[in-house]
Design goal:
This protein is α+β, with helices and mostly antiparallel strands. The protein is 42% helix and 27% strand.
C-alpha cells in the first residue's frame, strides 16, 4: 500500500493555487509586449550571455515601445532611456530560439512592460501618448511592375517584406491575408488597384478587420536601376493617405529596402493613430 505524504500534498496544492493566482494577476495587469528582439553576442571570456542579452533587450524594447506609443523624436527617446533603468519597467520576458554556437550566442527575446508604470513616467514628463492596441487593420501589399499589377502572384517582394516582419509588434494591430483560394476569388490585383470597395470590404470582413490599407509600390526602372515609390490608400474610404511625413531613404537592394520601408510605414501609421487618440 502506497503512503501519501499529506504535507507534500498540501505544499503542492499551495504551489498550484499560487501559480493560478499569479497567472491570473499577470493576465489582468496592464501589460504590453515588444516581441522578437534579436540579440547576437560574440563569446568573450566567461560571461553570463543570457543576462547580457536580457539587459540589451530591455533597452531596445523600451526604445521601441516609446517610439510606438509617443510622438517623440528618436534623439529625445534616447535621452529618456538614458535617464532611467528600463528593467524597472519590465514585468516579464520570454526567450525563444536561443542558440549557443562556437563563437556566438543568439536569441529572440520578447519583453512585457507594465503599462501603468510607463504611463506615470510619461505623464510626469508631460509627454502625450496612446498605449492601447489600434484596430485590426488588413494590409494589402500591391506591386506595380512594368505596368503589371501583382498581388497574390509570385514574386511579390512587397508582400514578402510584410510577411518577414512581426505584424503584431506594432501599436496598430496589422494582419496579412493568407492568400488562399478564397482570397484570390474575393480580390484580385486589378480590384485592389481600382479600390473596389465591396471586394476590399469582403476580404477585410473575412479576416474580422476593421480597417484595410492598400499599399501600392511602383517599381520604376531609372538609369538602369529599379527605384520604388509608395502610395497608401484607405481601402474602405477609398481615400489616399498622405505619407509626405514618412521619413525613408532608399537602398539599392530592393528586398532589404522594401523590408525597411514596411517597418517605416508601420511606425508612421502608429504615429497617425497616436495623433488621433492622444
Amino acid at each position: 500500500m502506497k503512503i501519501i505524504n499529506i504535507t507534500y500534498l498540501i505544499k503542492l496544492l499551495i504551489f498550484i493555487l499560487f501559480n493560478v493566482f499569479f497567472s491570473s494577476f499577470i493576465l489582468a495587469s496592464e501589460l504590453n509586449m515588444v516581441k522578437d528582439i534579436y540579440i547576437e553576442l560574440n563569446f568573450k571570456n566567461n560571461q553570463d550571455y543570457r543576462k547580457k542579452a536580457l539587459e540589451s533587450s530591455y533597452e531596445i524594447a523600451f526604445r521601441r515601445y516609446l517610439n510606438w506609443i509617443t510622438l517623440e523624436k528618436k534623439a529625445d527617446i534616447e535621452k529618456i532611456v538614458a535617464d532611467l533603468v528600463p528593467k524597472d519597467y519590465v514585468i516579464g520576458y520570454s526567450i525563444e530560439s536561443e542558440k549557443f554556437k562556437k563563437e556566438k550566442y543568439s536569441a529572440l527575446i520578447s519583453i512585457n512592460f507594465e503599462k501603468e508604470k510607463i504611463e506615470k513616467l510619461l505623464i510626469s514628463k508631460n509627454i502625450k501618448f496612446y498605449n492601447k492596441k489600434g484596430p485590426k487593420t488588413l494590409i494589402i501589399p500591391l506591386l506595380n511592375l512594368d505596368k503589371r499589377m501583382v498581388l497574390w502572384d509570385d514574386p511579390n517582394p512587397w508582400f514578402q517584406a510584410w510577411i518577414r516582419r512581426p505584424l503584431d509588434s506594432n501599436l496598430t494591430n496589422f494582419i496579412l491575408p493568407a492568400g488562399e483560394v478564397e482570397d484570390l476569388i474575393t480580390l484580385n490585383a486589378e480590384d485592389a488597384n481600382s479600390l473596389k470597395y465591396y471586394k476590399i470590404k469582403k476580404l477585410a470582413t473575412s479576416y474580422e478587420a476593421v480597417d484595410a490599407l492598400v499599399l501600392k509600390i511602383d517599381l520604376v526602372l531609372e538609369n538602369n536601376e529599379y527605384n520604388y515609390y509608395l502610395k497608401a490608400y484607405d481601402g474602405l474610404s477609398q481615400e489616399e493617405i498622405s505619407i509626405s511625413e514618412l521619413n525613408y531613404i532608399q537602398t539599392k537592394n530592393i528586398n532589404v529596402g522594401l523590408y525597411n520601408l514596411s517597418n517605416e510605414f508601420a511606425n508612421f501609421y502608429d504615429d497617425m493613430w497616436v495623433k488621433k487618440n492622444r
